[in-house]
Write a structure and sequence with these properties.
2 domains, 5 helices, 76% helix
Length: 75
């Protein structure tokens, strides 16, 4: 990753560096989604965060979540 970034600093128009950087980012994103655990674990971890707890207390956020639950195709 660093090699691609350094290459782009030296030559911002270098296609090999740009393509390599993009492919690497795609692989990182794919791997992070595949290995991030199950949804219940992620939800429990998020709900332990005080900032998330405050957001979840917001009535407008709760309404959006209710709307999404009632009409999953709209979300």
């Amino acid at each position: 990753m660093e090699a691609f970034e350094k290459g782009m600093q030296l030559d911002p128009d270098n296609k090999e560096c740009k393509d390599g950087y993009q492919k690497t980012m795609m692989m990182i994103n794919t791997q992070s989604h595949a290995s991030s655990g199950n949804d219940q674990e992620r939800m429990a971890h998020a709900m332990a965060d005080p900032e998330i707890q405050n957001i979840m207390r917001d009535p407008s956020v709760m309404q959006v979540l209710r709307d999404m639950q009632e009409n999953p195709a709209a979300g």
